[in-house]
Design brief:
N-acyl-L-amino acid amidohydrolase; alpha+beta; 160 residues; 4-stranded mixed beta sheet; flat
Length: 160
Amino acid sequence: MAFPSEEEQLRKFRNDEVAQHYFEVLRTLISKKSIFAQNIGLYDVAAYLGEIFSRVGAEVTVDETYAAPFVLAKFKSPNPDAKTIIFYQHYDTVPADNDQPWTDDPFRLTVRKGYMYGHGVDDDKGHITARLTALRKYIREVGDLPVNITFMMEGAEESA
């Protein structure tokens, strides 16, 4: 079986309403600085994540008692015996210093030749968005979850 070309994949992505919505969510996440080492934007990004996950039906807790807020988003299966899958992720990034080889503004999501560039796309805002997109598509197309899914997101992973 041949894989679709890059152009076919991009066309399918552009026609996917859910993927486009979460692309805009990722664009917003990338634009929001969340740098633990400089204590920048952590509460703002945690609140934004709480809002996004709430809209999809998660039971959300944003715990602001830590140096960087901790966000828990729980999606419940109707099955009382369902197992739970936990995704650990972080929303903070390292500083985007001037000595790094950025060709574009690191806090502006840029797409070039089918690749996305922006501070946090790969570590770890893009992963949060990708998992949430997949979960949203599953709920929309299939319905009830067969398992409970919990997202644990913190803003101090890049502190070491």
